[in-house]
Design goal:
Blueprint (H helix, E strand, L loop, with lengths): L1 H15 L19 E5 L9 E2 H10 L4 E11 L6 E5 L5 E6 L14 E13 L1 H10 L4 H5 L5 E14 L1
Parallel strand pairs: 2-3, 5-7
Antiparallel strand pairs: 1-7, 3-4, 3-6, 4-5, 6-7
């Protein structure tokens, strides 16, 4: 009996000696570089991050390629934090959504810098979805009702985000 207890303690210590840290929900905790907070499923490397404009140009040439982009948050979904937009150099913005709807961003991060890993996607958004997004943004009903055509656009599907503190 004593030998079993000792064996159990040894196995327990061996299990605890690894470098994997678990979050309360059982998922692996990913550490962030100094000055950043990590949000998401995958680690994000700061080195090699490109602008949204560079990433979009690359995506048009090589669709589906994983990239790391950096940018300034323009807006965040005020319902849940389930999407954000990043400013582009041309004055337009690009919508960032999150892989598997598995994580959300804080709602008060407009104006802050982020670095995100993921892929650019070209997609057609239905009238219903565009109206839903307009509602999330808090647009007036008159603007929501004026949405009558689907829209094809590029978006970014992130699997991890570094939020600059």
């Amino acid at each position: 009996m004593r030998q079993l207890l000792i064996l159990g303690l040894m196995l327990g210590l061996a299990a605890c000696s690894g470098s994997t840290i678990q979050n309360a929900d059982g998922t692996k905790k990913i550490t962030a570089p100094s000055g950043y907070e990590h949000i998401g499923l995958a680690p994000v490397k700061l080195r090699g991050a490109i602008t949204v404009a560079q990433g979009l140009a690359d995506a048009q040439a090589k669709p589906g390629k994983s990239v790391v982009v950096k940018g300034e948050v323009e807006k965040v979904c005020q319902a849940k934090g389930c999407w954000m937009t990043l400013k582009r150099a041309d004055g337009e913005s690009i919508r960032v959504t999150f892989k598997d709807y598995a994580f959300f961003m804080p709602k008060d991060i407009a104006g802050r810098q982020i670095v995100a890993s993921g892929v650019f996607e070209k997609k057609e958004e239905s009238v219903e979805h565009l109206r839903h997004l307009a509602e999330d943004e808090g647009k007036p009903q008159s603007e929501i009702d004026a949405i009558t055509q689907p829209k094809t656009s590029w978006g970014f599907l992130a699997d991890g985000v570094l939020l600059k503190k």
